[in-house]
Write a structure and sequence with these properties.
With 393 residues, the chain is of the alpha/beta class. It contains 15 helices and eight strands. The strands form two sheets. A six-stranded parallel beta sheet has the order 1-8-5-4-2-3, with helices on both faces. The chain has a two-stranded antiparallel ribbon with strand order 6-7. The longest helix is centred in the middle third of the chain and has 23 residues.
Length: 393
Amino acid sequence: MENFQYYTPTKVVFGKGTEDQTGQLVAEQGCRKVLVHYGSGSVIRSGLLERIYRSLDEAGIRYISLGGVVPNPRLSLVYEGIELCKRENADFILAVGGGSVIDSAKAIGYGVANDGDVWDFYDGKRRVEGCLPIGVVLTIAAAGSEMSDSSVITNENGWLKRGYSSDFGRVRFAVMDPELTMTLPKYQTASGCVDIMMHTMERYFNHCDNMEITDGISEHLLRTVMKHAKILMTEPDNYNARAEVMWAGSLSHNGLTGCGTDGGDWASHQLEHELGGMFDVAHGAGLAAVWGSWARYVMDAALERFAKFAVNVMGVEPEEDDAATALKGIEAMEDFYRALEMPVSIRDMGIELNEDQMRELAEKCSHFGRRTIGCIKKLDKEDMYRIYKNARG
Ligand code: NZQ
Ligand code: ZN
């Protein structure tokens, strides 16, 4: 078991109608002017934005707005948001949306609170020393950004998608009404469930003596998400299923399932980020497309762990040797992805990767040969290339 820190400063306000408390929650933060940040229109169509404005008005909060965040949020809009906040003296950001909106809000918060180019942080050149305070009204269960320390931004200059993690970026409060997620297209619901599971799986696959309690929480979380994800495929309005998935999304990425571990593997995420940057795929779908290829490539380095996963999470009957059990577990996970109409290869996402593109993905993912990824097995540029190739389909 490894030593660990567990830090979750976010106040969670969970349940039906909780978005009507937003104005009050913002007022409690003692701010003067709020930037309301949102995506490409779902919050307008659902009427949520109007309700948020009303709640802010009732609490006497002044605000300005910036919409237009797209999935795989862009650096150019972040720059726009930074300028707007500075010009208008905004001192709080309210993100109304999903991971993309929250991540964009965090980047804007860093850009306002720190001098210089905000991309430096994502490019690994500098560390932030602060962030504007942020609140969230969550509309999709997926990225877990509402309780995580990270933010992922895509730079259109080179189409590089890069993450940055800092406790300064953890949000002050997160309003989570599962009913708000009922308007999600099936594909986004499924993609979100894959991402939620991956945040725990990335931590589960590691090389240390794990804590029984952390493994137990992780395995139960994964089984819970699988059960309710399947329900949501036919019953999108099932409140309990929406609620289970939404809370799992936060717990999966707030550090809980990493306590006592060495931090986890995270290679699948790194491999997917380049797909998101280059082809603009939905993050969870991209993860489903590469996970099987990654798992088969590295499983020999952690057979016992993969076998445990197969039995305790996927419900596989143990075979005589761990390798056979592990493989059955990987296949069972791919069957689950198929049941959610998620891709199990890059071709399944409608992308026909050519040789040059596979090389480019590996170049970018290895930061042009400067880094390895993963902990189950350290992967260099050539390994990354092979995993993309095996995932091509
Ligand atoms: O933009 P709008 O119109 O709101 O539409 C969004 C978007 O098209 C739509 N949507 C959201 N809520 C909805 C809805 N449509 C109907 N009804 C609703 N209630 O869903 C689409 C996807 O939204 P997005 O915010 O992109 O989804 P998600 O939460 O999956 O976020 C993905 C981003 O988060 C990053 C990903 O890489 C990706 O860029 N991640 C962030 C992490 C973090 N900060 O901790 C960790 C993750 O591993 C991930 O990398
Ligand atoms: Zn993710």
